[in-house]
Design a protein that fits this description.
Shape: elongated
Number of strands: 0
Number of helices: 11
Order of helices and strands: HHHHHHHHHHH
Strand content: under 5%
Length: 199
Amino acid sequence: MVKKSPNKTRPHNNFGNSLYRQGRYEEAAGYFKKAIEYNYWDMEIRINYGNSLFLSGKYDEALKEYRFITKNRPDNINGFINLGETLYALGQYEESAESFKKALSINPEDPEVHTKLGNALFKLGKANEAVSEYTRALELDPDSAKTYYNLGIVYYSRGNYNEAIEYLRNALRIDPGYDRARILLEKVLGERGINQHKR
């Protein structure tokens, strides 16, 4: 049984946080891991450890950490969100979508999680369900350029150029420096012009 030792946990966690803020994720992970040895059940430290592993590109190790958190603390929304993101990064979209759904069962009003779920559903070829999630995300946060951009991608992939253009223009209205939205908008406008010329 690992004993709880807060006096030894705190310095390791604090130093890990400092390294994390500097973008030194791999080093931070070492300190968070040490902190966990002293306080095994501290889920906040485990989230920090998992995040450091994820940002170091160690997705499989991060996955183990997030699975531990969600198994032992099924009310930990960040555990499910981070598990979903890691599974998404590994191309496991079905399980990723399930993790985001579990996060939404804890807080159904989180627009970012609706967007992340939409992304996973889109990767699974479930465009209609993805649109529903993006639409819900915009109801909760109408100023999300990323969500408008994602809707633009869905409609572009379906060949619905006018809808795609509308959503991409909305993304750029909110964030004029959104390069990916601008590049895709130019592409869609060009393709729409070619298709109209062919008719």
